[in-house]
Amino acid sequence: MKIYRRLQEIPRPFCRPALTVGNFDGVHLGHQALFRKVIELAGPRNGDGVALTFDPHPLKVLRPQDPPKLISTTEHKIELIAEAGIDYLICLPFTKEFVNTSAYDFVNKILHQVIGVEDLVVGYDYACGKGRQGDIPFLQTMGGKLGFKVHVIPPVSVGGMVVSSTNVRRQVTQGDMMKVRLLLGRYYQIRGIVQEGRHRGGPVVGFPTANLHIDKEDLCPKTGVYVVQVIHQDECYGGVLNIGYNPTFGDEKLGAEVHIFDFKKDIYGHPIKLDLIQRLRDERKFAGPKDLASQISKDVETARSILAREKGNFSISPGNFDVTDHIPPGQR
């Protein structure tokens, strides 16, 4: 997938393009339906499948005092759009100046003149331009004048839930990773660089951990303990993740610590990815390190069973971790 980050980088209109436009935060099942329609339209005529998105998220500019907590980073969003099969991604900077672009100019100057759209694919609630004046009837009228068709994708529902970025955020903050997976079509993932911690996991508790920073702007799952799939350098490992404040040790700063199964590498400063599979329990204050270690042992045993059950759903096959070796007797 080729990426353009400025309109000036696009040398000429695309080849008979089908286009979809949106923020695509999370690239959930609703967004994936848009991408499938683009590919369906462009493919038979050997046209280009194009997606147009923005960075940063428009609400960070329009509502800086209360910006949305994003489901995916821009980097992750781009990866997911590429995996969907889109040929070209236009990722435009969303600025205060861009806010004043009228719906007419957005459609005529950008979608028509620069991109050369033949088919425009949008969600049922899409609107563009200053004040969101470019609603679907407006787009259909403009399409009739400029020679492109508008295809409106209806709401996508799964498990009795309407798929939306708002609903994904709600389920993440409630810690319901099973529902999040239904809405996304994959596990919810957090990413980060492994940082120096307080060195209590291994020496004090007996379970070494990799520590990740949680920024106040991050979409943070509900505090507690989670079963995770840990991805490091394209190798997959099982693990248990604690998101919270470490009440046993009286910490006050929110953090994330993951104990990675069967893993002894030094990864300080390395990027890792965590797929959150299931929330196990609330974070609790224990009498001391011994009681905490006992509970973590139980968490690890439960997590291994869940990982064995979920093995077929992993996007990357486990590397050094063979889940079948760790299923408790009687459950194999």
The side-by-side strand order for the widest beta sheet comes to 1-4-3-2-5-6
Q: Helix amount, in percent?
A: 25-40%
Quaternary structure state of the chains depicted = single chain
The end-to-end span amounts to 42 Å
Instruction: State the name of the first-level CATH class of the largest domain.
Output: Alpha Beta
**β content, as a range?**
15-25%
Tally of strands: 14
List segments where confidence is low: pLDDT < 50 over at least 5 consecutive residues.
317-332
pLDDT averaged residue by residue: 90
| CATH topology title of the largest domain | Rossmann fold
- Radius of gyration, Cα only, in angstroms? 23 Å
Topology as H/E string? EEHEHHEHEHEEEHHEHEEEEEH
> Could you name the CATH homologous superfamily of the largest domain?
HUPs
Give the structural class. Answer: alpha/beta
Q: Do you know the CATH architecture of the largest domain?
A: 3-Layer(aba) Sandwich
Largest beta sheet, briefly?
6 strands, parallel
Our count of helices gives 9
Compute the number of structural domains. Answer: 2
Envelope shape: elongated
Structure description:
This protein is of the alpha/beta class and 332 residues long. The chain folds into 2 domains: 154 residues, HUPs (Rossmann fold), CATH 3.40.50.620; 140 residues, Riboflavin kinase-like (Elongation Factor Tu (Ef-tu), domain 3), CATH 2.40.30.30. The chain has 9 helices and 14 strands. The chain has a 6-stranded parallel β-sheet with strand order 1-4-3-2-5-6, sandwiched between helices. A 6-stranded antiparallel β-sheet has the order 9-14-11-12-13-10. The longest helix has 22 residues. The protein is elongated and about 75 Å long. The chain starts with a strand and ends in a 22-residue tail after the last helix. The C terminus is likely disordered.
